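Attaching the record inline, Q. Sequence:
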Amino acid sequence: MNDSTWTWMSGSTTHDKVGVYGNKGNASGTNVPGSRRGAVAWFDSLRQEFWLFGGHGYDYSNETIGLLKNLSIISIYPYIYLLKFYDRCVK
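Structure, as predicted:
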């Protein structure tokens, strides 16, 4: 696979799915961001991290749907995907 190819690795393929956020700022392979739309994402090729910010979806409590202002950082190591979350607040 070359650097310009995207591959679906895991997670839900449907909308309005809640996330698993674990402990704020601590990476875990069991953390999964909730589904969202309108988010901003970018890839840091130096650190091999995928950054996901904001959007519209469920908050960290998985009870309220609305505008998000959280940051998820997915560290991509060979075959290991660790997710870290910052500022889980919404609205």
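The radius of gyration is 13 Å. Strands lie at 36-37, 40-44, 49-58, 65-77, 80-86.

More tomorrow.
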